[in-house]
Structure formats: structure tokens, C-alpha cells
Amino acid sequence: MPGGGSRNPLVVGRVIGDVLDHFESSIAFGVTYGNRDVSNGCELKPSQVFNQPRVTVGGDDLRNFYTLVLVDPDAPSPSNPTCREYLHWLVTDIPATTGATFGNEVVSYESPRPTTGIHRFVFVLFRQQYRQRVYAPGWRQNFNTREFAELYNLGLPVAAVFFNCQRETGSGGRTF
Fold first, then answer.
1. What span, in angstroms and rounded, lies between the C-alpha atoms of 144 and 40?
2. How many angstroms separate the most distant Cα atoms in the chain?
3. According to the 3-state scheme, what is the secondary structure of 5-17?
4. CA distances from 76 to 49, 79, 143 (A)
5. What's the rounded Cα separation, in Å, for the pair 108 and 102?
6. Residue 143, SS3?
7. Helix-then-strand count for the chain, H and E
8. How far apart are CA 151 and CA 92, in angstroms?
9. How confident is the model at residue 110 (pLDDT cuts 50, 70, 90)?
10. In the chain, pLDDT over 90 holds for what percent of residues?
11. Residue 164 scores a pLDDT above 60
């Protein structure tokens, strides 16, 4: 960009486009695996993301609740994402200023285990209009974050972050 302006990493990583429409982040949102904070485009190994992460949600209005979605838009492979988006986690009714453990886990966490290529794993946070019953989809593959948000009147996301992950090779890491 002329003038040295920075580009949105969600646009550069094609998260906006493949998974989400353009939005402005409006709330503090953190995802941590062990002692490793997730930042847009960082590389994490499957062994680092095996256990459910700690998710923190900001906000100042304690009457607000949030929905968290974790998807892989590159399943089963980035060159042929026929299962786009694969749903890895869905948590609703997360109170402001808390974390995912305080919400209602609708779809349990499934650790990322990419087999081919570099996959993007996208955490998306929506502000709920009100508490409501959210139903688990019948299957994890071909989830659509945009359609889900429309179905439950969630509007645009209030925050998102993604990391890259690929299969661990024989170079000291475990293979799954």
C-alpha cells in the first residue's frame, strides 16, 4: 500500500473472503494454547493445539453474551477444500469479560489434525442479540459461518483470529 499503511491480516490470509465478510473488530479477544498466544497467521503444530485453548472475551457490558466458532476452511486440503468449512468447536452464551469455559459448549472441541498442506484455523466471535438455544449441526463438515450467523441473527463478527497448522513430519514431532 502506498504510504506504508498496514493491511488487515484477515484479508491477507483470505479469512475475509473465504469465511467472513469484512468487519471491524470491536472487542478484546484472546486465544491461548498452553503459553502460546494465537496471533493472525502464526504457525502452530498439531501437538501444540491438541488440548482445548483458553479463550478470553472482553467487553464491558455484563449483559452481553457471545458465540465462538472455530472452523477450518481448508479441509481436507487447501487445494481441494471440499469440506469447507470444517467445524472444530462451537460455544454459545459466553458472558462478557469471561471465557469459553463459562459458555454453553454446543459442539465439543476437536483438535486440528491436518493431513495435507497448510490449513488455516479461524476463531470467530459474535455478539449475541440475546440468549437463545443454538442447535448443533448434524455434522462438522461443510459448516458455513456466514449462514450460521444469519440463521441465529448474529450479524457481523466482533473479533476473529487465525493460525496456520500443518502435519508434523518426522523431524522430532509426533505424527497423528
1. 21
2. 49
3. CCCCHHHHCCHHH
4. 18, 9, 13
5. 14
6. coil
7. 3, 9
8. 14
9. very high
10. 86
11. yes
- Cell numbers that stand for 162 in this block: 487465525
pLDDT given for residue 169 in this prediction: 78
Q: DSSP assignment of 5-56, as one string?
A: PPPPHHHHTTHHHHTB------S-EEEEETTEE--TTEE--GGGSSSPPEEE
- Cβ-in-10-Å burial (0-12, 13-18, 19+) of 28 comes to middle
* Rounded Cα gap, residues 111 and 103, in angstroms: 19
**Local confidence band at 36 (pLDDT 50, 70, 90 cut-offs):** very high
Residue 61: pLDDT band (50, 70, 90) is confident
